[in-house]
Design brief:
Length: 268
């Protein structure tokens, strides 16, 4: 396995976060396309160039681009609305940026505003995922869904979308926190779909504890990934400068350092 971190988990915004990640032993980083109000910042060539420079200098691989906008305006929004237009623009911008920066995965989350709760939500999300997969075809880019669906619902999603470049972005806490699903069991049943992994932990709250100190059975899930022979990227997604995790220390980098050691040991 290879150890990385999400850009939004580094307690330092912008390209300089790449240096901070490298200083703490990370080799990979997931980026975000940015906010529509600022033109989806990562879509700008001058922003991409700065990130490339930092990545080269500090030997960091950009593993994926996410569209975190979907937490506010999800793929479940009605077609023809300004919000859905932003969703589709975000997808297009992320794929364009991924192609330009040689980033192999575009992650499209289904949480908060975009959570799939109804048949209509499911159908609208499927439509977006099909569109994204078709836009990414021929570009060596995987479209990754990160969601709260059950094993059976995920299997149905992949069957209905029916695209070879659709994969699952797996998270070790989200399924238990939101649905009380056993994450290790989900790895066992959905492993063939998994392209990359987020790790975080907590006790009844997203990212509320260091890895293994929450209630999401982090170590059990890591053991299952090892049992399956997973050798891809594992990216930390704890929020060290946000409550409740920041209640443990007013020095977020010290918390990050602790999680790095925990994850290193769990990967062995």
């Amino acid at each position: 396995m290879k150890m990385g971190i999400c850009a939004w988990s580094v307690p330092m915004d912008g390209p300089y976060g790449v240096k901070v990640a490298a200083d703490y032993g990370f080799k990979g980083m997931q980026l975000d396309i940015g906010e529509p109000e600022r033109g989806f910042q990562l879509s700008y060539p001058h922003v991409q160039e700065v990130y490339r420079q930092f990545a080269k200098e500090y030997d960091i691989t950009f593993t994926a681009i996410s569209v975190r906008l979907f937490d506010r305006y999800g793929m479940t929004r009605k077609n023809g609305t300004p919000e859905k237009d932003m969703v589709m623009e975000g997808i297009e911008k992320a794929i364009q940026a991924a192609e330009s920066m040689d980033i192999p995965i575009v992650m499209l989350g289904s949480f908060l505003d975009g959570e799939i709760k109804t048949v209509e939500d499911f159908d609208r999300t499927v439509e977006c995922l099909i569109n994204a997969c078709e836009l990414a075809e021929g570009k060596d880019i995987i479209i990754a869904t990160e969601n709260l669906l059950s094993i059976e619902e995920n299997q149905k999603l992949f069957e209905v979308v029916n695209k070879d470049n659709l994969k699952l972005y797996f998270d070790t806490q989200n399924y238990y926190l939101n649905r009380n699903y056993n994450a290790a069991e989900m790895v066992r049943e959905l492993y063939d779909y998994i392209c990359e992994v987020h790790v975080k932990d907590g006790k009844g709250h997203i990212s509320g504890a260091l890895l293994g100190e929450g209630d999401s059975s982090f170590f059990e899930t890591m053991e299952e990934l090892k049992e399956k022979g997973y050798q891809g990227w594992v990216l930390i997604e704890n929020y060290y400068d946000q409550k409740p995790l920041s209640n443990e220390s007013d020095k977020p980098l010290e918390l990050l350092e602790k999680d790095v050691e925990i994850l290193k040991n769990a990967m062995v």
